[in-house]
Amino acid sequence: xxxxxxxxxxxxxxxxxxxxxxxxxxxxxxxxxxxxxxxxxxxxxxxxxxxxxxxxxxxxxxxxxxxxxxxxxxxxxxxxxxxxxxxxxxxxxxxxxxxxxxxxxxxxxxxxxxxxxxxxxxxxxxxxxxxxxxxxxxxxxxxxxxxxxxxxxxxxxxxxxxxxxxxxxxxxxxxxxxxxxxxxxxxxxxxxxxxxxxxxxxxxxxxxxxxxxxxxxxxxxxxxxxxxxxxxxxxxxxxxxxxxxxxxxxxxxxxxxxxxxxxxxxxxxxxxxxxxxxxxxxxxxxxxxxxxxxxxxxxxxxxxxxxxxxxxxxxxxxxxxxxxxxxxxxxxxxxxxxxxxxxxxxxxxxxxxxxxxxxxxxxxxxxxxxxxxxxx
Length: 376
Prior knowledge:
Layout: H1 8-31, H2 39-47, H3 50-53, H4 59-72, H5 74-93, H6 96-108, E1 113-116, E2 132-135, E3 140-151, E4 158-164, E5 174-180, E6 186-190, E7 199-210, E8 214-215, H7 221-257, E9 259-260, E10 263-264, H8 269-297, H9 303-329, H10 339-346, H11 357-375
Parallel strand pairs: 1-4
Antiparallel strand pairs: 2-3, 3-7, 4-5, 5-8, 6-7, 9-10
Helix pairs in contact: 1-2, 1-4, 4-5, 4-7, 4-8, 5-6, 5-7, 7-8, 7-9, 8-9, 9-10, 9-11
């Protein structure tokens, strides 16, 4: 952890989170069923006050939580993050009634939340959403269409759903709705994915929603989605940094004791330089994540660019670091149950979800050229 960039209380809190994850969370993950919502784990996250902290802390605190948990127990980190992603729109844009109904249960871990944005033909291009909200009288709509690759589906209790209320209006015609899982006409199917948590599809067959279900304002849902992603993208980077640090720690320990050619692996310059490169990239990614989170907390104008940079660098770095760690550990790292075998499977998805790496590069470039035009 970069002590020079964090105050002593933050450094101490991160250490406490790692100890908590080791002592209280990892055993619950080990007892859970892969591909299913681990409700005992969520309850424990709620009991420890971590879920409630999602809605009372800033972006930097969120990043520190995610990094610290991921360094010890990636599955616990993911359970925490998905609660935040699914319910942050309620916290930020919900009515008093919506907040009172769902936030206490989400914070306690007794209700599971999900963020339902992606569709079969609208992933990275979120403005191309096709799920239709057809008018059904004043302040009433019916949702028809599909969502896919939705984390926590179909086991969530409530979904933040983005649907098109105005045809052919691009990003300007999308509305965010808060839809309970038991709403008539809503069904879901699990997908068999390389993931420790459930991912599934959702089918909306004339699902009724009203003005009381709207998050924010009609036709302004794209702002709800992007505001949520601008907060969570740096923290996806923090998740990646935590995994990279776990892989680095394991590699330093392994290469320092593994015998090879009359010494240890760490005595070989080729190995030592690879470990140094892993450490260099991990620290660079960490600092960019912290900078993006701090910019968000300070209300900086360039948050989308910084968030894109943080997610891009951190997730690409984690992929490199984990892959290098596997190479330096050899075949043992591919054995089922090994830390690196788990990380190797876990590290791939963050380069895709919440905006693929290619989308992050597009965001960065678009902001750079926009700034250049403003200066002319």
